[in-house]
Amino acid sequence: MTKYEVLNQLNQNELKPKEAYKLLYNSQKERKPRKASFVKVRIRVPESKGATIFLSILLFLPVPIFLVKLFVPRKFKNSSDPINDNFPMAPKELLELVSLHGIKVDVRTHDDVKIYIKTI
């Protein structure tokens, strides 16, 4: 039906307003999130400047995501128990989250070590 036919039927009360709206305006398509290919990690240790420099040189370039998934143990991947009481996500959900594009994780520990993870 064309726009004018729908409006005429709505004017003559042959269609309900909600049905006419659905006919006039198509529903939006659900967008799929993009997959990440690299992970950029930055680690800062306040007590040890040498360790911070070493880690920044080691992690200067982004790490491919398949290497991150390769080094995660299979036992850790397949468990469905939450990681911690304060962090109720399962490890499998966490890996799925890290594999999406545009995710930023900022971790601050009790020792004031800062870990910044960003997916590209």
Describe this structure in words.
The chain is an alpha+beta fold and 120 residues long. It has two domains: 27 residues, no CATH class; 82 residues, no CATH class. It is 39% helix and 17% strand.
Q: Note the main sheet.
A: 4 strands, antiparallel
| Number of separate strands | 4
Amount of helix: 25-40%
Return the structural class. alpha+beta
DSSP helical segment count: 6
Strand content bin = 15-25%
Count of individual domains: 2
| Rg over C-alpha atoms, rounded to the nearest angstrom | 25 Å
Keywords:
alpha+beta, 4 strands, 120 residues, single chain, four-stranded antiparallel beta sheet
Strand and helix layout:
Layout: H1 3-11, H2 17-24, E1 38-44, H3 49-58, E2 63-64, H4 65-71, H5 74-78, H6 91-98, E3 104-108, E4 114-119
Antiparallel strand pairs: 1-2, 1-4, 3-4
Helix pairs in contact: 1-2
In a few lines, what is going on in this structure?
This protein is α+β, with helices and mostly antiparallel strands and 120 residues long. The chain has six helices and four strands.
